[in-house]
Design brief:
30% of the residues lie in helices and 18% in strands. The chain is α/β, with parallel strands linked by helices. The protein has two domains: 18-225, Rossmann fold (3-Layer(aba) Sandwich), CATH 3.40.50; 266-372, no CATH class.
């Protein structure tokens, strides 16, 4: 995650005696509100300004309302390409498609149209502002083609980060999506042959080896590793007036987009289970203290109490259930007049029978609780 930097930025007029460097950042979206990779162009823009680089930003006009507010001081350095009707049509059509299908079809068409207009604008701006390098930080997906080529200056693309294969639990429920993505990946080399920006780039930045393996074949530029993920300590600091952290349980703060593949719903399910298990363990600890301070176990007429122990019981049918419960196990020793096995009871703090984990009755189709089993 790349976070917003609070440190003040300086204008390029404050550049020192070193040689001037003109950089133009090209991206479709630049937004801190949208989050995700849309924030990367703004981070690069601000950091390069802070270092005294003569930097320009070229983005789509949909980012203008936000940038007019957040970067109004540098509005003369930000340039836009307009929205065209065909982009609006593609975007509306894509709303009915599964996410990954939309990304590789209508979403890619919208991006391609933007890049076509940006390529023409970039050529003009390179001459007007004497740009030395064009930097395209997004999209971060390594297979998406780029139209930033033939500009007369070196092009740097990245850092890219992608080529992820998710575990089964994160797979899309859409059959169309599961079948479409591998096919689309298979056409990546052809698309990058037809639109050869990445194959002709001077430098390709990748976050890791996994991403490097997904680059299109035939890339002639240098491939360098630059991990762009991190935490900015100037931003993520503990305020002096922050209240003391409560000790009555675990608290989780999620920072990110609420999209399915981030699995936030799974985190909520897991924490619900953790809470249940934590309460069960706390109950077992309470039983141990209760026994140590003189718990009086329930008695049987035909047997004497031999031992009392706190226990955690798990369901014998672990293939069906993940049940567990805390209980007090009381073992009874037969008295002199009785012969046979020792009796065992599982009880709660009141001496009543504990609610045991579920088991499977082989005589019934559906799993049932052990208390429901036929005698």
């Amino acid at each position: 995650m790349v976070s917003v930097v609070k440190s003040p930025v300086q204008d390029a007029s404050e550049v020192g005696p070193r040689k001037r460097l003109g950089v133009m950042i090209v991206a479709e979206n630049a937004s801190l509100r949208q989050g995700g990779e849309s924030s990367l162009p703004i981070q690069w823009f601000r950091e390069l300004l802070k270092e005294g680089v003569d930097v320009r930003l070229l983005v789509h006009a949909r980012s203008k309302p936000e940038l007019d507010q957040s970067l109004s001081r540098f509005s003369s350095r930000i340039h836009y390409v307009p929205e065209v009707l065909f982009q609006t049509i593609c975007w509306k059509f894509g709303q009915a498609l599964p996410t990954h299908v939309r990304d590789f079809t209508s979403g890619w068409l919208v991006h391609l149209i933007t890049q076509f207009m940006q390529r023409r604008a970039a050529r003009r701006l390179i001459k007007q502002y004497k740009i030395d390098i064009v930097h395209e930080p997004t999209p971060v997906a390594p297979r998406i083609p780029s139209m930033m080529y033939g500009l007369g200056v070196p092009v740097v693309i990245g850092p890219m980060n992608g080529n992820m294969t998710y575990p089964p639990g994160y797979h899309s429920r859409s059959f169309v999506e599961r079948g479409f993505v591998p096919v689309a990946r298979g056409f990546a080399d052809l698309a990058n042959y037809l639109v050869p920006g990445k194959r002709r780039a001077e430098v390709l930045l990748v976050a890791n080896e996994r991403t490097r393996l997904a680059l299109p074949s035939g890339c002639r530029g240098k491939v360098e590793v630059l991990c762009e993920n991190g935490v900015e300590p100037d931003v993520w600091q503990r305020p002096d007036d922050l209240p003391a952290r409560p000790v009555d349980g675990l608290r989780l703060a999620f920072l990110g987009r609420l999209v399915s593949w981030k699995g936030v719903d799974m985190v909520l399910d897991v924490f619900a289970e953790v809470k249940k298990q934590t309460e069960m363990i706390e109950r077992a600890v309470r039983y141990r203290k209760m026994i140590a301070t003189g718990y009086e176990a329930p008695r049987l007429e035909s047997a004497d109490v031999e031992s009392v122990q706190p226990v955690v019981l798990h369901s014998p049918a672990v293939g069906f259930y993940n049940d567990a419960t805390a209980a007090v196990r009381v073992i009874y020793r037969p008295n002199a007049k009785q012969v046979g096995q020792k009796a065992v009871r599982y009880v709660d703090e009141r001496g009543e029978d504990a609610n045991l984990p579920r088991d499977v009755d082989p005589l019934r189709e559906e799993p049932v609780r052990r208390t429901e089993r036929k005698q």
